[in-house]
Write a structure and sequence with these properties.
3 helices; six-stranded antiparallel beta sheet; globular; Beta-Lactamase; alpha+beta
């Protein structure tokens, strides 16, 4: 099952499907903008994909804050969370983009992380998310 936002080409969902085929322990994955907007998903219904994107964005943001405070850098390579019967992997995927994967509990973290990194490296320019224009206040006029 794939969910794709209306403004995103379906080929990104195809990439996520390919990742799941390469690593069968992957239950679902999402590609999102760093501020939590869903770009593409595979393996989850639309509502779960959007919720997973929001959660991944929050965890990624917390990791960036920790890096800024304790590592003198806001660069995050990967966030991993081990749950009761699942594992979450969240990785930087290019400019303003994050890749999040939900895997089964028995997944080998090294394999999942390696395949995520391989996918990101292979198609990084296509994963970038354009910066959003600054918001304008009500009543402001564009010349």
């Amino acid at each position: 099952m794939s969910a794709v936002s209306p403004n995103q080409a379906p080929d990104l969902a195809w990439l996520l499907k390919g990742l799941a085929e390469e690593v069968p322990v992957i239950r679902g994955s999402v590609l999102l903008s760093s501020d939590g907007m869903l770009k593409a998903a595979h393996g989850l219904d639309r509502a779960s994909s959007e919720q997973f994107a929001a959660l991944a964005s929050g965890l990624f943001s917390i990791a960036r804050s920790a890096g800024t405070k304790f590592d003198n850098s806001n660069e995050v390579r990967q966030v991993v969370a081990e749950l009761k019967s699942s594992q979450l992997f969240i990785s930087w995927a290019g400019f303003n983009s994050v890749l999040a994967v939900l895997a089964k509990g028995e997944a080998d973290p090294a394999v999942v992380g390696f395949e995520m990194a391989r996918l990101i490296k292979a198609v990084r320019p296509f994963l970038d998310t354009a910066a959003r224009p600054p918001a304008t206040a009500p009543g402001d006029r564009n010349p």
